[in-house]
Amino acid sequence: MPYFDSTSQQIQRPASNTFIVLSVLIALLLNGLPWEGIWLILRPDFVAVVLLYWCTYKPQRVGIGLSWAVGIFADVADASLFGQHALAYTLLAFGGVVLHHRLQMFDLRQQTTQVFGIFVLTYAVYALVHWQVNGYMVWSFFLGCLTSTLLWAPLSITLQKMRQMRMDHDRT
Amino acid sequence: MMDNTQSFQFFNRGPSPAARLVFFVVLSLLLLFVDARYRYLESARSALSVLVSPIQQLATMPSILWQQASSFFVTQHKLLDENKLLHQRHQRDAAQLSQFQALQQENQQLRNLLALAQRSEFTAQLAEIVYAERDVFKRRVLINKGESDNVQTGQVVMDDIGIVGQITRVYPWLSAVTLITEKDHAVPVQVLRNGLRTIVFGAGDTSQLSLRYMPVSSDIQTGDMLVTSGIDGIYPPGIPVARVEKIERDAAYPFARITCLPVAGVDSHRHLLILAGLPKLLVPPMEQTAAATAKKNIRAKGRNPEVQ
Question: Looking at the DSSP assignment, which residues form a beta bridge with residue B177?
Answer without folding.
Answer: B141, B167
